[in-house]
Amino acid sequence: MKLATGIIPARYDSKRFPGKHLAVILGKSIIQRVYEQAQTANLLQRIIIATDDERIFQASQAFGAEVLMTSPLHNSGTERAAEIAEKINTPIIINIQGDEPLLRGKMIDDLVIALQDETIPMATLAAKVKDLSLINEKNIVKAVLDKNGFALYFSRSPLPFQASDYFWQHIGIYGYQRDFLLKFRQLSASRLETTEKLEQLRVLENGYKIKIIETSSPTLSVNTPQDIIRIENILKQRTND
Length: 241
Known about the structure:
By secondary structure, the protein is α/β, with parallel strands linked by helices. The chain has helices at 30-38, 54-62, 77-85, 105-114, 178-186, 191-196, 200-205, 225-240, and strands spanning 4-10, 24-25, 28-29, 44-51, 66-69, 92-96, 122-129, 142-145, 151-155, 167-177, 211-214.
């Protein structure tokens, strides 16, 4: 089986929550929690934090992570991950969002397994959500799938219209064939990507497919300081269980 390298892009100057990767959740920074959760995957041969900020670099080294500095000129985490991917030979790259402290190692492994099929250029995760009150949350990205499990569209808007049973919540962890990731970086930002602020739409607009892997564990990314309180409550509940 081909193994993968996990890359965790982390920049300090987030528009919605500057410095969020260093924000603390129950005694550990968010970036440390993401890194430690990534370590629970079985199919990663290497995990690299990619940052352009000295504060994140120093904090990552302090808890023992491999961390590399990248250009400050990147517009997205994907571009940052691609810079690292260009320097290594691993055939599969997993782009692990640095604000997903609730991710599980199995999520990563499932993407690596899917990408053993070299005809699949890119894969990501989605979970069925039956609480339809969440479908209007703009920070919860909705996915629409075809009957073969490939993405038709992603949106921050409620999709599908008038869902009565469930919707698919996109989980922002991406797997790539390394060569496709390097190709993706060369594609110009697309209209839908710019409108929705979802860079995976660039892939669809250019005619490539994204395989959706179902996961049973919806996550909660950190977009605002209020999300930290929600995640702490979830982690406390897990401990009590």
